[in-house]
Amino acid sequence: MTTRPTHDSTARELATGTGVLRYHEAGDGPPLLFLHGSGPGVTGWRNFGGNLPAFAEHFRCLILEFPGFGVSDPVDGHPMAAAPAAVLRLLDGLGLHQVDVVGNSMGGIVAAQVAAAHPERIRRLVTVGGIGVGLFSPSPGEGITLLTEFAERPSREALVRWLHSMVYDPALVTEELVEERWAQATDEAALASARRMYGRAAVAARAAAAAASDRPPYWATLHRIQAPTLITWGRDDRVSPLDMAIVPMRTIPGAELHVFPDCGHWVMIEQRAAWESVVLAFLTRKDPA
């Protein structure tokens, strides 16, 4: 691209039957959808805006803003439960039958759910931490515990503690990052959404519902994914520890795992150049004859 994509120059809107979906678009080529994670002040742009220049050289990049995080119109129900339908609404609204998908944390879980339920819609899948189930490390992880603390008692100090759990290098937690996250996270609607996802009562209710349900957890359906899959992870992830990668690595057919050293949960930010190189190689690799 000749000019670096900016937040405003890439901002788009799509009106749907259940509200407006907002997203960012840059580049030309095969469609590549980015799905962001959760947490205080998160947006798709903050997760992936820095990666757009590298990927927009090869792909038509779409960064979806999930409902329930203060950008797209909110919908009823739990934001994570509503997210797969939002993905399909975006694809259908843009007339896209099949896309490549990159999902960070919650976004990776959502991408895996869509890929398992609608295998014809996902050509290749890349996840960044988060996916799977803990086998050896304490659960929930440190970052999730700090996220619950923030949801229960929002404060700037609680936000800073959570942000530090997301990274290996504390220097990445700048005043600018804290301020922009604080402004978004304390929006009334975004804070209510965070409590629905990570408040203690919400976590307990989900655990009780899961125990009483006959439906398998999403990680037990990963074997249904047909898309070639690249699992990426930070070795020092304190939100979703590395042992979570074992189940998806073994159960997603043909899945590949790449682990980045000196790196926390935000691999696409903390090891940006290395991560972009690995992901681009995977997405542009020729299909087997």
TrEMBL record:
The keyword GTP-binding does not apply. Coiled coil: none annotated. One of its GO terms (molecular function) is hydrolase activity. Keywords: Hydrolase. Transmembrane segments: none annotated. InterPro entries: AB_hydrolase_1, AB_hydrolase_fold, AB_hydrolase_sf. SUPFAM superfamilies: alpha/beta-Hydrolases. Residues 30-270 form the AB hydrolase-1 domain. PANTHER family: AB HYDROLASE SUPERFAMILY PROTEIN YCLE (PTHR43798:SF31), MONOACYLGLYCEROL LIPASE (PTHR43798). This is Alpha/beta hydrolase.
